[in-house]
Amino acid sequence: MKRLLLSFILSFGLISIAFSQGKVISGKVTSGISGPIPGVSVFVKGSPSTGTQTDATGIYKLSVPDDAKTIVFSFIGYKTKEVSITGSTINANLEEENTTLSDVVVVGYGTQIKKDITGSVASVKSKDLENLPVTSFEQALQGKAAGVSISSQNGKLGQGITVRVRGASSVTAGSEPLYIVDGIPITSADLSSTSSPTSALADINTNDIESIEVLKDAAASAIYGARASNGVVLITTKQGKVGKTLIQFNALGGVSTPSNHRDFLNAEQYVQILRRAGDGAANQDFLNGDYPTLAAAKADYAASVEARLTRYSAGNTDYQTYKVNTNWEKAAFQNDPITQQYDLSLNGGNEKTKFYIGGQALDQQGIIVGNSYKRYSGRLNLTNKVTDFLEVGVNLNFSNSINNRLSNDNAFSSPLQAVALSPITPFIDPRSGLVSGTLPGAASNYPVYYNPFIGIENAFYKATVYRTLGKAFANVNIAKGFKFSSDFSIDNLNQNEESYYGSLTFKNTGTANGDGQNISTFVINTNTNNFFSYNKTIGKSAFDVILGTSYQKSTTKYSTIEGQDFPSDAYVKLGSAATKVTASSNESAFSFLSYFFRANYKYNDRYLASFSVRADGSSRFGANHKYGYFPAGSLGWIVSEEDFLKTNETISLLKFRVSYGLTGNAEIGNFSARGLFSGTGAYGGSAGQIPIRIANPDLTWEKTKQLDIGLDFGLLKNRITGVFDFYQKNTTELLLDVPVPQTTGFSTKTQNLGALKNTGFELGINSENLVGAFKWSTAITAAINNNKITNLGGQILNGNEINAAISNQPIGVFYLPEYAGVNPANGDAIYYLNTTDASGNIDRSTTNDINKAQRIFAGNPNPKYTFGLNNSFSYKNFDLTIFLQGVQGNKIFNAGGQYMSASASNGYDNQTVDQMDYWNKPGDVTVTPEPRLFYANGVGNSTRYLSDGSYIRLKTLTLGYNFPTSILTKIKLSKLRLFATAQNLATITGYKGWDPEVNADYQSTNINQGVDFYSAPQPRVISFGINVGL
Amino acid sequence: MKKTYIYNLIFASMLLASASSCKKALDINPVDTIEQSKALQTSKDVEVALVGSYSALGSRNFYGGRPFLMADFLANTDAIEWYGTYEELTQTINKSLLKTNSFVDNVWADGYTAINDANNVIASISKVDAAKKNKVEGEAKFIRGSAYFDLVRLFGKAYNDGSPTTNLGVPIILTPTTAVTDASYVSRANIAAVYTQAIADLTDAEAKLPATNGFFATKYSAAGMLARLYLQMGNYSAAANAASRVIASGNYTLTPAFIDAFPVMGSSPGSNTTEDVFSIQVRTLTGFNGYNEFYGSSTYGGRGDAVIAQDWIDNTYSTTDDRINAFYDDGDMFTSKFANPYGNVSIIRLAEMYLIRAECNARLAPAAPIGGQTPLQDLAVVRSRAGLTTTTATLANILNERKLELAFEGFALHDAKRTQTNIGSLPWNSNALVFPIPQREMDANKALVQNPGYN
């Protein structure tokens, strides 16, 4: 394949045309700091096509016509230099360019000079994304774009990542941004067949990305109309550059460990608390009158508890001497899982043809046993100037990923659920010599739960994805400044999820002879963009206009089969299954037809105005509401261009911007507007149909009106630059799955109801603190977001009984009874009543009946403050990057608390160590109730399990060494860099669980956030890498 | 420059072409599902909707077994030992249900889903071929009437607890939902009204249904449900008469051995037994045995969470009672009644009919026993199958026999209530023995009033 691609490129290269030349000029191009610069374009002014490039040592040789007057040196990152031709040797010393403000930024359907932008766009370049041991690029983006909040659900590889641009702008419709790769909307939906999402974005190689732009306000994003309310993420992949072909090889290898461990009871503590729980329960039974004497009750319970302990101690009395002390928590983590990543890229071209070829092999082992992720990807980006008015090209990306997945966080087979097993239970059952709980052998009610380690050896769940993302495009220069662009793309995603649970996993699957599943998902997403662009400068006025259309259609086909009863575990394919228990196929599709227009106007380099509008039609909405119109306007004033500031030494840039516009959200089911019957009502072998959805022909877009006021500044010749934004996003006509009375036969109806608001501030600062030999630069991103649901039509959405969506509260607010601790007199868990009487007084007395306690708004799962702080240092050939990232103002609910921190009142689960502080006798003051076996004392959802979720994390620490040019010249390399990088090295948090960056995978929705349920922590990855440039 | 104009023309026409096809471009229809307006056009459409109603009725959260299991949990004192982790069932067995108990919510939701599905069939009955019309309507009404009966006895106070005409039952909805409107927010009808509706549906069903109908509801399924309902109301003559109609039909016989009345232990799909008057069908691909989920040991497809206390078994059954053998040891003791994840869920067994008739005749002591058989004779039928002889048939004997014969089949709570028998230290009419109206439903429908004890 590679060879084919190469010959393809070579044939393009041959199209170059030879020129007749006059004299020869040679010389060396250097830079004050970096020494010789390879790859600099050198050409005669006015005819760039006659140019050449410097070699690895910065030397060039150029034939020029006799009448040539000036020679031009140009290289990205440096100021272009023009030198008059005198003599045959011309050396040039290029000045590094502080490009921050003259950067070109990718916007919808084009690019713009950053200085001229009137919208709010966060831009992150490749250097901040590359060479990190991450699976998906969002992880590399975390904390680097102000107002873009990114959070992994857990530490499993390739799994869901929550991205919110300026807060959640929907309650039950999608809240993830629209992802556009090189101009095309890609398939980004979760395609996992389980309720735990996987990231379709993980198919993209982070090292192929040149830049990521996040369009945040309406002015920037409204060009994407009906799908822009959640923000738009534009991903631009690396393009070929004119010059000598640069070959780069990167390798990175590392070891992962969990960012944190959680402590559970040891054997002695476990036995102690359970015996105490038996006594506690006996006392309750006695008080209920179930026993004539307390002693009788205790004796009964003691017999039962000892019998259970014997059982969980593999049927012996070892537990009495605490002989076995298994650390199940530690066992859930792999020993030294390895991460490896190899990249090879070629980048080059001439004035006619440019190419970028990138390939990557990624092999990551997860911190949790049984979890690994592999990805192989390749990319070809190619452009060719066919004639002076026609440019054509292709972007082609293919990838293959293999994810050895784990069970959902809430499954007994999820390895971290092993923490529920008793420390007195040996890992290997001495009676069978097999992993405890493995059938046959000991009784199936041993250990307490299904032992997930049985599944590690006897089950697999593998998701394989083949993805091809291809785009062909043409740009036609119709007249000066007038261009037509056309592209057609196909994003084809094939996923196969295959699993087999062997006969030994019986206790988990309930099937004695194996259970296999095979699930295929096929997504074909086609898109075409066709648009005209025109720009013209008349005197002091400059115009820039686009007008075009796009059409997207995406079809998803899905089939699933499940079989049981295999001849033996040697057979894992479904042909061998005697019984097929599931056989199903589905298909669904949506389309968008859109027209868009944008005009930018600039007067005298200082007054800016922009207007855009998009008309979007979608198949998802009813006949009367198929089309929506999304206009946005913005104004900008570059004050620093005015005469009174132009000469100011301190202020190099001062720009005000304001924008206002309308965007939409269409992320609902493809057929949510319709009343539907499904043929899935089969019964006893007869076909049946059932109503499954209630109609709403009036369903239309969710609308967000956004105001943005921004300020861009640069100080001290732009050594310090900054962006400050205030925004207010008002979302109305929410696409809401409104609970309807279930007496209708339905539980929800998708309708436009309610409103919510996000307001916030964002700050981004880049500062070159020290320049010269020792360099120090700082980048700060910080954002505040206040989310509030302003109207929900009186509904309370509280599906998980933990988080709620309710008027006047932030989305997902924790809505729980308030825990008041323990009654010192009797050890009862108590709760504040918090009921309000007629005169509005709140009753703060307590009750031991959680049903009587009024729920309170106990905190916000979404952080109020998000921030990132990057410090980069370099001295001579060393560089050091320290990147801190954090969130503040959010809370986390440990939904596993009712089992793991239940003072042994909810069964034989092992407990967190803090539970040893239980109430033991009258007068004890503690927050941990009396242990009462199966009496569920204090285990109901309440603020008992809620804690602060703020954290600051040393996200990345990188130390690198660049070999100096003197050595590079000798070994004929253009670059050689060694580096060490650590991810998630340290975390400061008040959260007592594994990791504060958490939201249990199986239950994550817009509302259900900040919930921990045996969720794996983030990995701490220590890795070493090398970059080699030829 | 000429070339430029040619390109210009080409692309402009391309743009036009893409724009002109726009109507079709947005016209995407579901292929997995059909629009509700097209769903109920023909006789066959309505007949398959009826099958769909059975599948809704048979949900694990409804006649698949869970509400029966939960009722037994609420009535449990010393028979069931709960080792499960489902907090919802821990609350149930502790008789401290929370308003937010999702199992309770599921019972409510799935009960009403079955009712709405049946309402769809009933509302479209005119589409059904004349020859099948009565049968289809009868089946739909059997489903609806049964669902109302079970909802009202779980979510309302007992019929014999205070005044059924003032105590709140459940909302009555008799038309299918095609759109959610103001009329969809229905308040709770009183208990008597819900019983009246269930009686009307089941009586009409009995009149219209055929005597045999495969595994679907028959005339006698409706009569059997009526017998159970009348017994719950304390209308003993109506109950005895209805039970008698089932027995007299001759369509059902007790299985020779007690254990044969239940699905064969294992995991192969079962079929109805000769004494199933009505049962929910479970297959590998459809249906779910909600009893097996918790009562079955893991060897037999369940979670093994609900263990039967050995003491209870020993104290309840005499050693000569064959029913003592309907338990198996898989580390703990489990009931053999539900030891098959693909076994059908028996809803009405013939044995229950004998016990109903016996009880009613014993209570009424009429000159001539209803159905022509004395309580002693009816009781002996049930007991002799278990290998026992029968000498007396007092009310206490019969009620005890119900406990022996029907254990874990969802009778304990409702029997305790109608016989006003306290459960442990809880009075028979305790608020804790009535399901709360689900909090989710209270939030969604302001017209509802919560049950006492849950505010």
From TrEMBL, chain A:
Q: Name one Pfam family in it.
A: TonB_dep_Rec_b-barrel
Which InterPro entries does the record match to this protein?
Beta-barrel_TonB, Beta-barrel_TonB_sf, CarboxyPept-like_regulatory, Plug_dom, Plug_dom_sf, TonB-dep_OMP_SusC/RagA, TonB-dep_OMP_SusC/RagA_CS, TonB-dep_rcpt-like
Main subcellular location = membrane
Q: List each copy of the TonB-dependent receptor-like beta-barrel domain by range.
A: 449-985
In the bilayer, the protein is annotated as: Multi-pass membrane protein
Ranges of residues in domain TonB-dependent receptor plug:
114-232
Question: Per UniProt, which keywords does this protein have?
Answer: Cell outer membrane, Membrane, Receptor, TonB box, Transmembrane, Transmembrane beta strand, Transport
Location in or out of the cell: Cell outer membrane
The yes or no answer to whether the keyword Isomerase is present is: no
Task: Write out the similarity annotation.
Answer: Belongs to the TonB-dependent receptor family.
| Protein name according to UniProt | TonB-dependent receptor
Source species, please?
Pedobacter fastidiosus
Question: Lineage from the top down?
Answer: Bacteria, Pseudomonadati, Bacteroidota, Sphingobacteriia, Sphingobacteriales
